[in-house]
Amino acid sequence: MIPFQFTRSVRSLNRLRHIAQVLTRHGFGHVVTRLQLGRFVPVWMLRRKPQGPTGELPPESIGRRLAQVCGELGPTFVKLGQMLSTRPDIVPEDVLKELRLLQDRVPPFDTAEARKIVERELGKPIDQCFTSFADEPFASASIGQVYRAKIREGEEVVVKVRRPEIDDTIRLDMQLLHWLARSLEELAPELRLYRPTVIVSEFEQTLTRELDYVNEAAATARFHAAYREDPGVRIPRVFWELTTPRVLTLQAVSGVNAASLMAAGADPEGSIDRKLAASRLLDCFLKQAFDLGLFHADPHPGNLLVTPPATIGLIDFGQVGTISDEWMTELVIIVYAAVSREVDVVIDALTDMGAISLETDRASLHRSLQMLLDKYYGLPIKRFDLGTLFNEFSEIMRRHDAAVPRDFVLLIKAFSTVASVTAQLDPDLDLLELLRPRLRRALQDRVSPKALGRETVLAGWHLLNIARRAPGQLRQALRRMSAGGWRLDVHHRNIDRLIGELDRSSNRLAFSIVIASIIVGSSVVVSAGTDLTLFGVVKVQYLGIVGYLLAGVLGLGLSWAIFRSGRLH
Fold it and tell me: 435: number of CA atoms within 13 Å, CB side?
């Protein structure tokens, strides 16, 4: 077991106890036992198994129970559940469906406290910053809540205020999550393929970015600059003088959100040109992916606004993804190879991205991908569901223990969401017709003489640098070898666990010997039959009786410890 580093903190132990008990209460007692956290949970809770009307709960209930766990454990775990809901490559679809229902809504904190935070962050009274500030928030989430306000120029703005003390809560939970992830990899080797430590690290990076509103402001400003000259797209402007890590002030963007627009009977007056809006929305996202290398990672219908007749508004840039030139090259290759049903090229590109390891059965993966591409080949565009295709592809990758990079998954997921919205706004929109010229241009840019020349120069520089350093490194290695400075380190993954078990067993054996010694000594004293007294007050036989009682108490304690460990044999 990996040493727990937070024993000095009562708060940490209480939080860990709470996590263990919530997991157990929702039917994950086997996980608690596997993580050796049973000492935090009553034995009767560990023995209880979740039951349905007909006995054992069906597998799909795991997702529902997991969502309940996240909701009960608070903001950090709600965010973790939401992040996992975007990873079909590592989470089964039946669990994803339940995690997607997690709502990041909590009761708002007091507006008076929010005003104090704004004044403290901006360094002056709130009346000097805003001519009006709403008494109640119109949105409240686990990290912050949002108010409507007006600045002195008369412009309407929205103000996001971070919750007080949320930093300490998330910091503590992240420490525990890192420890739990390392413990899972150590104590459950079958889960190592899903890289729990990597997932938690990625989650921490994402959550850290969300906690600092300056990151969201910077992303919003970058998008605003990119679409400043585009009359068909509106991005809120950042008011930097009213923005800090805890307070974010943005221009208010009006419009009908896409969720409402897609509802039956929406826009009865026909004021919105749905075809033009769909085309602009899709082109807007393609520009982000192919030109900016920065994309809105959470384009759900609530974050997509449409102003008559067809102006697109994008809000909430708390989650953004980045695509490097290298990954974009691999993405273009994958798309072109998939259209041509060149499965070997697809697998090679995924390998270059680090998605496929040496342990992956490439032959089995090849067959699965070939069947997937054959299924959708020649399918009419109106029957083509990108979201379903992405889910099936993710299931194949998960089944073959392949892990696609997070930003790559976010890009495809976001694109699937946008494609779904545009398909409902305009069922006749030809997705491939808009996508084809972007792909062609992207491929041409990456195989152009200029791009190839740049890569050749960089590769030559790296080779020259290696050649220049090689003699010195070889000389150093030979010197260390001749001086006996080479050492072979052998590391066994489970040796710490073995040492811990041996240590625990030896302690119990020593404890048993002590108890036996007390019993033997007490028996000798009691059977002596002498009238000797201790200090002339207490008969020696009474000490033997006390010894029996002490041995009994210690024996009960030892038995209870063995019983709680679940190892009676």
Answer: 15
pLDDT digits (tens, 9 = 90+) for 46-83: 666 554 444 455 555 888 889 889 989 988 999 898 88
**Total residue count of the chain as it appears in this document:** 569
C-alpha–C-alpha distance, residues 392 and 367, integer Å: 14
Position of tokens 């679409």? 227
Is 320:295 a contact under the CB 8 Å cutoff? Answer: yes
* Neighbouring residues of 434: CB distance < 8 A, sequence distance ≥ 6: 279, 282, 283, 286
Does pTM surpass 0.70? yes
User: How far is it, in rounded angstroms, from Cα 259 to Cα 302?
Assistant: 6
> Are 314 and 305 contacting, i.e. CB atoms less than 8 angstroms apart?
yes
Phi first, then psi, for residue 188 (nearest 5°) are: -130, 75
Catalytic residue among 89, 298, 316, 426: 298
Report how far Cα 56 is from the mean position of its chain's Cα atoms.
29
What is the amino acid identity at position 453? Answer: G
Is 298 catalytic? The answer is yes
CB atoms < 10 A from the CB of 230, how many?
A: 15
Q: Tens digits of per-residue pLDDT, 222-274?
A: 999 999 999 999 999 999 999 999 999 999 998 888 878 776 556 656 788 98
